[in-house]
């Protein structure tokens, strides 16, 4: 009961925080289908290293489109940067195509079976991200990407016992209220699921994003 009350308060707080209509967005054509959602951001400043994640979220069915930027300079600069594959980078000792100062990841996930029982994910593979405009509290850009398509399925035991069902409902509720970036730390984090052998390719074209967090940074 106490947990449900805390969750309700969190939803009410998030809803009031995002009550005003936001102009932040992320859009793209995903395998030929137009897609658009309000964009969220997570920026973590660490000495000598920066991480900026941008993402759009939808619920029922759940969909997430992420652009993650890693850079080893104090400021993000306009320019066109290659999209990396984490698998390929791992084999090369995490040496990005850009020479080590910047790399970008683009990822996608779509719920294919209700209540998190199946997902079709696109893992970052290749393409480009172009930063067209950037300030200390905003960023705009475009992207084109080819993703490695993979599939996840809820484990049989988890399906039979209903494991994670409540957590899934809570995640959907908070994501729908505007807290997608808070409750979804990684686009491929599917609890109690296994990756299947089936693979394909997901093509993302005409990707655009605009995120301004000036109001959030005001004291």
From TrEMBL:
Keywords tagged on the record: Signal
UniProt keyword Signal present: yes
Signal peptide: 1-19
Top-level taxon of origin: Bacteria
Name this polypeptide is given: Uncharacterized protein
Organism classification: Bacteria, Pseudomonadati, Bacteroidota, Cytophagia, Cytophagales
């Amino acid at each position: 009961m106490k947990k449900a009350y805390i969750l309700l308060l969190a939803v009410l707080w998030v809803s009031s925080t995002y009550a005003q209509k936001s102009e932040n967005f992320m859009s793209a054509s995903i395998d030929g289908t137009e897609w658009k959602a309000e964009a969220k951001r997570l920026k973590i400043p660490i000495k000598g290293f920066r991480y900026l994640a941008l993402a759009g979220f939808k619920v029922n069915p759940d969909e997430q489109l992420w652009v993650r930027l890693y850079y080893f300079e104090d400021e993000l600069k306009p320019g066109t940067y290659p999209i990396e594959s984490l698998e390929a980078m791992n084999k090369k000792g995490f040496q990005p195509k850009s020479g080590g100062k910047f790399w970008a990841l683009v990822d996608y996930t779509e719920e294919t079976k209700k209540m998190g029982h199946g997902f079709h994910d696109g893992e970052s593979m290749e393409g480009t991200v172009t930063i067209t405009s950037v300030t200390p509290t905003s960023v705009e850009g475009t992207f084109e990407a080819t993703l490695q398509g993979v599939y996840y399925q809820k484990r049989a035991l988890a399906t039979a016992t209903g494991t994670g069902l409540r957590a899934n409902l809570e995640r959907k509720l908070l994501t729908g209220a505007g807290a997608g970036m808070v409750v979804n730390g990684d686009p491929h984090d599917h609890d109690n699921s296994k990756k299947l052998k089936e693979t394909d390719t997901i093509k993302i074209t005409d990707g655009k994003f605009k995120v301004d967090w000036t109001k959030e940074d005001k004291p």
